[in-house]
Amino acid sequence: MEKQKLIGIFDKQAAKYAKKSEGSTQKRWRQQLLSHSKGHVLELAAGAGANFPFYSSEVRVTAMDFSMAMLEKAKEAAKFHRIDADFICGDIEEMDFPHQSFDTIVSTLSFCSYENPLMVLEKINNWCKPDGRILLMEHGISSNPAVSFLQKTLDPLLFRLNGCHHTRNILGLIRESVLTINKTESYWTDMVHLIWASPKQNQ
To answer: What is the number of structural domains in the chain?
Structure first.
């Protein structure tokens, strides 16, 4: 899909994302993951700021998204939750930061949309400090054959509607990447994964 069209899809969803109330399970996953963030945090595809309630007051967040409409909602969330944050509107697949810039890099539910997810994983490996943390909560293909068949059938339609692929093998991508996996937890017939990782270049 053309990138500007994809950005438009997320622009239109910004108000819905901001009003969306997640269940207790998703909130617990975010809290469980983000409690390990420290220092200067880079958050990829920050969206409407769903992670902001779960950051420690001691971290400083650089929140990035290619949708300005999403970032406007994220700014409101940061102000409400008193998060020290700055915001960059840009495409993570085209963005670059200096080597080893961040103590923590966070992505929650963003790898479903990247055209080249392995390239993004290589980027965050380079941007993370030697003793830094890479914290991911991502969704993808189920290990249940019936569910995965449905995901594969609906994926083209769902991507056109909401800009999100539902068929990616998330753990497979991480294992293929340059990251070092320290811990994983998988839920909902392996459709959701929490991943604690480190930059392999510094091992």
So the answer is: 1
